[in-house]
Design brief:
The structure is a single chain. The protein contains 8 helices and 2 strands; from the N terminus they run αααααααββα. It is mainly α and 187 residues long. Among the domains are: 35 residues, no CATH class; 86 residues, Substrate Binding Domain Of Dnak, Chain:A, Domain 2 (Up-down Bundle), CATH 1.20.1270. A two-stranded antiparallel ribbon has the order 1-2. α6 runs parallel beside α8. The relative contact order is 0.07.
């Protein structure tokens, strides 16, 4: 592609927004995308505001933006209630880690991982219930029966050691976390 042909492209006007394009062809577009002039200017303006206002620059504008998106101001009572919900969730996660540390055979890593990962997509109240339900089931010995894995013959949840003839392979834990998956699959 020649420089003449890029000037007629519909997106050609955007090239001037990125200083790096003046010096090179930029192919690294993963998480380190080229920095635009507008982004640099906005960061500089924010740093100036932070310098001028101190810590208030961090939260004042966010509250206004959130209130505008929501359509109403956020009250102190709503904020306190939200903090209580998230503190309860953090406490449930800490309890799960403590239980896993004390009784690792009752809470396999693969299942604990699934419970924790569910917190990325569940509302915090539901994730807290899921974690506490898991702890109650693990503590009561209500674990799903372990069935042999069809491909290897090992039982799910058990550590599979590699054969001496395959020293390059690593150990793995096989556990589908059925209880967690069932909980996530039900409406």
């Amino acid at each position: 592609m020649t420089r003449a042909s890029t000037s007629t492209h519909p997106l050609a006007a955007y090239r001037a927004e990125f200083a790096v394009f003046e010096r090179q062809i930029y192919l690294n577009t993963c998480s380190l995308a080229p920095l635009s002039r507008r982004s640099r200017a906005r960061v500089a303006a924010y740093l100036d505001e932070w310098d001028r206002r101190g810590a208030a620059a961090w939260y004042d504008s966010w509250w206004e933006d959130l209130a505008r998106l929501r359509g109403s101001p956020i009250t102190d009572d709503e904020l306190r209630a939200s903090i209580a919900v998230y503190n309860d969730n953090r406490q449930a996660v800490a309890e799960l880690y403590d239980y896993r540390s004390a009784k690792p055979w009752q809470a396999p890593t693969s299942e604990v991982y699934l419970v924790l990962r569910a917190g990325l997509v569940l509302p915090p109240e539901e994730h807290t219930r899921l974690g506490r339900d898991y702890l109650a089931a693990a503590g009561a010995g209500k674990r799903a029966p372990r069935r042999p894995c069809p491909s290897t013959g090992s039982r799910t949840g058990e550590v599979s050691r590699t054969a001496p003839s395959r020293p390059w392979a690593t150990s793995s834990i096989r556990s589908p976390g059925r209880a967690v998956r069932r909980r996530l699959d039900t409406p």
